[in-house]
Amino acid sequence: MKRISAFSVALVALALISLASCATSRGVIDYRVDAGPNPASGKVVYLDNVSDARVFEAKPTEPSIPSLKDGQITNKEITSRAIARKRNGYGKALGDILLPEGRTVSDLFAEATVKALRDKGYVVVPKDSPEAKNGTPVSVTVNRFWCWMVPGFWAITLEGQVEVFVTGPAILVSGKEEQVICSISRKSAAGGTKAWTTIIDQSLQEYMNELKARIK
Question: Which domains does the chain have, with CATH numbers?
Answer without folding.
Answer: 6-212 (3.40.50)
